[in-house]
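Sequence in, structure out.
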Amino acid sequence: MNKRIRRALTPGSQLFFIVMILFALVTVYFVPLLAAAEGAVIMIIYGVYLHMTVVRRKEVVRYIEQITMNVDTATKDSVVNFPLPTVIIRMDTGEILWCNTKFYEITGDREHLFEISIKDVVPDFDLHWLLEGKTEYPSEIALKGRIFTVFGNVVRSGAKDAGGYLGSVYWLDTTELSYLRSEALLSRTAVAIITMDNYDEVLKNSTDTARSGILAALDEKVSAWAEHTQGILRKYDRDKYLFLFQERFLQGLADGRFSVLEAARGLQGSAGIPVTLSIGIGRDGLTLRERLASAHLATEMALSRGGDQAVIKNNSTFDFYGGVSKEVEKRTKVKSRIMASALQTLIGDSSLVLIMGHRGSDIDCVGSAAGVVCAARKAGVPARIVIDEVTAAARGIVAQLRQTPEYAHVFTDTQGALLEADSASLLVVVDCTRPEIVESKELLQSINRVAVIDHHRRAATYIDKAALNFHEPYASSASELICELLQYICEPGDLTRSEANALLAGIVLDTKNFTLHTGVRTFEAAAFLRGAGADTVQVKKLFQTDLPTSIARYSIIRNARMVGKDIAVSVTEEPVDRTVAAQAADELLAISGILASFVLFSDGDEAVVSARSMGEVNVQIICERLGGGGHQAMAGAQMPHTDLREATTRLIRAIEIYQEESR
């Protein structure tokens, strides 16, 4: 007997019998014999119906006896009057078989609830948790303005019409508890550290009166911004504030995009440099000390990304707000000298130096790696550059380095590096801080001693267990940072001409021929390389392309379309080299009215974005929404297992969000 017939024979089918009887009465008028047969059938079905009704009632009674430990009838009455709302449910259909008066009260329904689905009463309720053997509903349930925690269990039923299993569900009203828990979380103290991250640059050459005026105006703006939270704001250093406030106000501050950042930029020093702030907020941790440590970590993250932004440190992630100002060069040679000494010591204590960068190594990546090879050679320690030459974008410069005797056995792959490595090996990661995009994750996880040298703005994920971390987002390139270190480790004559060319090419690549993201230190590094024998003509040749490549590049430019007034996006379905895509993104910036460009293409099963900017649009923030990162003027992203259509939608949406937030 199928489910429809069983459903028709279940209690509550009186309408079904009334219709059948009326039909039989009408048939008497036309075919009396047929009407008699129909009457007999109706009697048989009604007999079965009565039998099944008795069986169902016995089943419910037996189940109640089971959950009340088979005690007497008086105890059964206590189940009916159980203080918790209770429902007995048929597990295969979700049908309510029985409920007590308390359940009527919480649903606000005094009518018959039997033989209807539990979803008709509580639309979001499901029974999977009971079938999985759990005794508590995975989340709280809102019903009629109250909050409930639901418990339950399943027993096997002997009645065939009950589907084999019955479930009993108990509803515990936790509205007050939920409110108190929410209130406790909202009243927790969040710790924020507010730093004027360009104090020296803004107040340089200012008179005492002007200096006092700027600092007083900044104090006023920060105090006005924090006033509505009724928190505690104290200035504990010349350029630092400690801000304690309840977490209930954090979402409002975030929704306002931390407006104090923009307010501070309205103040300028004597040289016209706007004041910028970095805000680090710690909200995870059981104690104030732990949240203060999180705030310090968030502040370091903000400063490592160029400042002028707020960073919230959650349990295991970071949230970023702001970051629209251009970086101002402010690192000192003192730090470079200290880092050079530390790197020299690490190399000297190593049996082997392994160098790797990010996947698809570009010229800056290979050039900076070559600089580390020179430092290792100076210390008499063997060095290997770990690279996948099939996917590398800098195959030309790799080929030139291979032609020199010093690089006969320097380049290797991941397997070769793992075979050579031992407990005394040193891994130097250049031009990259994100563990998920390094050339070899296996190598990073296998080597205990790691040094990181990078110039990209730090992302939410980064290599945090490094013996040496030389991370300067104000530098033009990793090659520039390596040049600064080499000036304290080597003499210009220790560099081979090929190494000098590779390092200079890395600087030229990331500065777009010294037009973007350059500072005094950039030209000092270039002068050092020129003195070491770098040939600008040879460097220029490294960027030459053949005719098919040029045609492919201009085809990408031709397919570009505008998103908004000043952002160009080009999507190409033809397979292109990453270098070609980057070059096309660069050339799009030469078109009047374009402030930022994005080239989207497919590489195997992933979509790749190459982004460039004149500096006014922060392409790093846009690429971070796609899982990438980089610099304010140059960034990229890789979206695994994503086709071009989906990737285009995500890219356009990320640009639109950035434009909305910028406005």
